Task: inverse folding
């Protein structure tokens, strides 16, 4: 295991685990952020835009919605990208799904293959606040049995860190369109706004 974050990031960039296991992932691995970040945001996996063009997490259409949400908590995108650490459960673009109209969801095996990297990032960045975005990232902290509706809008203390989950901001998500769910998202953003001020993030 790497002793510091730059060393870990080099190991992640060289990772071929999924390709060697036969999964059609497309690199490079995507993550970014401040080595001294006190807030870590964890998504599901990068998309085509992130992998092929920008090489920055959440820089496609879902990212637009995410940063629209974060602006309501007082974070401007440039500031957030400079001050926080952004990564994901699996770090390479999984490729398109069978229909060709969206991205393939990483399998449980791919999530397991990449888990060591995420766990090491958590240890080395050591954030006080973690924002898992979407079901796959939320499962890392709450297990598979909890429903989004029971978790979004809450603020939790797990392993010494404050966890504020958000749903995935994909335009394809019907979950985020429901009025009662939007109220939960507003509550989550209020938690982030308070934390930003309280902890001077
Ligand atoms: S998704 Fe993770 S485990 Fe798979 S090849 Fe990319 S960095 Fe390695």
Result:
């Amino acid at each position: 295991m790497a002793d510091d974050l730059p060393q870990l990031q080099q190991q992640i960039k060289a990772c071929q685990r999924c390709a060697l296991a036969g999964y059609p992932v497309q690199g490079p691995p995507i993550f970014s952020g401040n080595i001294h970040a006190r807030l870590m945001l964890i998504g599901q996996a990068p998309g085509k835009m992130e992998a092929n063009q920008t090489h920055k997490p959440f820089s496609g259409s879902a990212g637009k919605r995410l940063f629209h949400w974060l602006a309501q908590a007082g974070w401007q995108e440039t500031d957030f990208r400079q001050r926080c650490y952004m990564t994901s459960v699996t770090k390479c673009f999984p490729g398109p799904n069978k229909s060709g109209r969206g991205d393939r969801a990483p399998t449980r095996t791919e999530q397991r293959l990449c888990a060591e990297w995420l766990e090491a990032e958590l240890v080395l960045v050591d954030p006080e606040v973690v924002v898992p975005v979407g079901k796959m990232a939320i499962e890392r902290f709450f297990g598979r049995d909890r429903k989004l509706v029971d978790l979004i809008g809450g603020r939790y203390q797990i392993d010494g860190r404050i966890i504020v989950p958000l749903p995935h901001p994909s335009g394809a998500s019907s979950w985020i369109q429901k009025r009662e769910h939007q109220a939960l998202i507003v509550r989550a953003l209020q938690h982030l706004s308070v934390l930003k001020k309280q902890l001077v993030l």
Observations:
- The chain has a mean pLDDT of 95.
- The two ends are 28 Å apart (CA to CA).
- Residues 12, 15-18, 25, 29, 90-92, 110, 113-114, 117 surround iron/sulfur cluster (CB under 6 Å).
